[in-house]
Amino acid sequence: MAKKIEKTKDEGIAEYPYSMHFKVIDTIGVPHTYCITPKHLETGHVYVDEWTIKEAELECGAKCGVKGCDLSYEEHKTALLVLCFQDEDLPDDLYHEMLQAYLMEIKDKCEADGCVGFAFMKASEPHKGEFDNGNDN
Known about the structure:
28% of the residues lie in helices and 18% in strands. By secondary structure, it is α+β, with helices and mostly antiparallel strands.
């Protein structure tokens, strides 16, 4: 995957601003997570990482193990998973404006981290945490 986050995944995600309504909680593979197969292990490496996956594709003909997938490792991308909470009394149009503002706020970092977009997960309650990041979305 073409992910540029050089920290651990959790450290990279923790750097995104958040509020009680919106928070980046994870990354997801697009169109799906690259799947390792026994062919990837034919290179003889003990560990599988980005370099050994690419080597296995070139030297052994390894491919993503998802049925019907013909994409290379490089063609699999990463998106941010955003947890979203909408108060019952918050009008939809205002909520959508807040979401748009939040996404615009994190867009540059998302792109710098090599992510290609966003996926959303509805939350049943507001995010609880310290809201000292100056974000009131």
